[in-house]
Amino acid sequence: MISVEQLTVEFGGSPLFDEISFLVNPKDRIALVGKNGAGKTTLLRIFSGKQAPTKGKILIPKDLSIGYLPQHMIHNEGTTVMQEAEKAFEHITDLQAEIERMNVELAERTDYESAEYHDLIEKLTRDNEHLQIIGNGNFYGEIEKTLLGLGFLRSDFDRQCSEFSGGWRMRIELAKILLQRPDVLLLDEPTNHLDIESIQWLESFLITCGSAILLVSHDRAFIDAVTTRTIEISLGKIYDYNVNYSKYVQLRIERHDQQVRAYENQQKLIADTEEFIARYRYQATKAVQVQSRIKQLEKLERLEVDQEDNSKLSLKFSPAPRSGSIPVEIEHLSKAYGNQLILDNIGMIINRGEKVAFVGKNGEGKSTLVKCIMSEIEYSGILKLGHNVKIGYFAQNQASLLDENRTVFETIDYVAVGDIRTKIRDILGAFMFGGEASDKKVKVLSGGERSRLAMIRLLLEPVNLLILDEPTNHLDMRSKDVLKEAIKAFDGTVIVVSHDREFLDGLVTKVYEFGNKKVREHLGGIYEFLQYKKMDTLRELEVATSLKATSDAVEKPVSENKMSYEARKEHNRKIRKAEKAVEEVEKMVSALEDEIAAMVKQLELPEYASDNDYIMLYQKKQREMEQKVYEWEILSEEADNLKAEVAD
């Protein structure tokens, strides 16, 4: 479908790409991966026609449609959300207008036998057929479904785009591109401004949309779910893997090991050859052999090994000063902006050492509660911070508080204390400030670079309550891994506001869900929460369906006795169904108990006790057990409630 042939891109005389070639096939879902600065965004820009290569070419069929979502863009002004989304169908409305114009012209003309008249009829026929193919029906349903999927409310449809933040306006642009259903989708960090529910909706959409996809993302769970092919850009070359990201990581380790062995063998060959040349250079009897070896070295294509990514860097927070046993305690807290109520009578207790996540759709109050904890805004109710709580806070505006006249290195050196000062350059390298980048002035950094620098500075401050608001938006996977390991090892308390499921997985042990002005506590990690939410949504759907059925029944003109009988019959059916569901979960719990008991015996043996894979499997079974017990408790309570209704 698209052919990349001998593509070369140079910046300042050094190649970003060096004669790379590959094909993009119909329905390919490709993840572009590599270090920051490797050229991922540049490649997308070349595909979209925004940038020309230095040499080589990309062959794109003329009738192929391409949709491109860049990381940063200039947004249109003066339109509502619905009007902006409708622009996705401008080609349809333009075609409809052209057909209407031709119909009017045909009605007015009388030269029925002329060639021009027949040409007009043929064009009208072709355009009508084309309109039927691309769809001339009501596309407002598609617009509504897409906007709702990306987190907008129906009440937002008639609001001006200028009323929304940059993140929400990027969602509008994403909606327009998705609605166009192009043959090829080029998406550069599409999840940066989405919440977890919107990301899951986008995942489902991309998996089923049928377009070819080239995707740049640092959200590991997202690219694992969406893509089936991975192209790595490294040192000007590409490495094409026909697998998703997780499998690519394994294969890349194997390739890197092979690369190191080949490099070491070549270095030994070069050293031996150079030693031979140096030893026999001035001996006439060896002149021919020496010249032969010199030519061999000149012709030899030198192998390179990918630069180390410092992913094994062990970064630790400064030891947390001891705080009270309950760093954050909230009772009956409410917050409104004018007449708009954001949080209504909420409460929570966060214990010392806990790592918790705040999740939910954008606009549901996560950042508002963080601002309450930081005493940045007023509220009603009670919010207590424990004894000796020292807060370290990361938010997007933290980047604007940096001293613009300091260099990157000076900014970190100013707050670093102790042995960590000897590792500043390693730390900066792990966060994409390696080499000359560490000597840049803060004032010349981009917004993303400033955010990363503010994050590094926070890592080095002695605090015992970390509050991180979307900390991963501008971090690549290597930097996210470094940050995640540092937070896991942190002995203080952590609140993370994030949509990055992979980052939260294994990091938090409690999830607070924000929605409908309330906050619900969920024990367990992020994936346990997501599994519960799917079950919870289905249960709510069943309740809604039964309520509708009851409502419909009430409207029917039937006798009271017949209604009572039908209601009892339906209620008994629900009780039987609930009891059966409890029995099925009980069987699952019993089977898991047997499995875990058998695994405990195996772990008594040394070969199993030292097997990390077996230990991880054991822990996974334990989590499954906890989830099933939780599910059993909920289903049992529902069954008991149904039986109690009969007794009443």
Placed side by side, the strands forming the largest sheet appear as 5-6-7-3-8-9
CA-CA gap between termini:
68 Å
Give the overall shape, derived from the CA principal axes. Answer: globular
CATH topology of the largest domain: Rossmann fold
The major sheet is characterized as: 6 strands, mixed
Output the number of helix runs: 20
Q: Report low-confidence residues grouped into runs of 5 or more.
A: 538-565
Q: What value does the average pLDDT take?
A: 82
| The top level CATH class name of the largest domain | Alpha Beta
Q: Which percent range fits the helix content?
A: 40-55%
Supply the helix-strand structural class.
alpha/beta
Can you describe this structure?
With 648 residues, the protein is α/β, with parallel strands linked by helices. It folds into five domains: 1-65 and 182-242, Rossmann fold (3-Layer(aba) Sandwich); 81-177, no CATH class; 258-299; 328-527, Rossmann fold (3-Layer(aba) Sandwich), CATH 3.40.50.300; 557-647. It is 49% helix and 18% strand. The chain contains 20 helices and 18 strands. The protein has helices at residues 40-48, 81-86, 90-108, 115-134, 140-149, 166-180, 196-208, 220-226, 245-280, 287-299, 366-373, 408-415, 424-430, 447-459, 477-489, 501-504, 526-555, 560-603, 606-609, 612-647; strands at residues 2-11, 14-24, 29-33, 55-59, 66-69, 184-188, 212-216, 229-234, 237-241, 328-337, 340-350, 355-360, 380-385, 391-394, 465-469, 493-497, 510-515, 518-523. The strands form four sheets. The protein has a six-stranded mixed β-sheet, sandwiched between helices. Helix 7 links the parallel strand 6 and strand 7. The longest helix has 44 residues, at 560-603. It is globular. It starts with a strand and ends with a helix. The model is unreliable at 538-565 (pLDDT under 50). Residues 568-602 form a coiled coil. Belongs to the ABC transporter superfamily. ABCF family. YbiT subfamily. It comes from Paludibacter propionicigenes (strain DSM 17365 / JCM 13257 / WB4). Pfam families: ABC_tran, ABC_tran_Xtn. Keywords: ATP-binding, Coiled coil, Nucleotide-binding, Repeat.
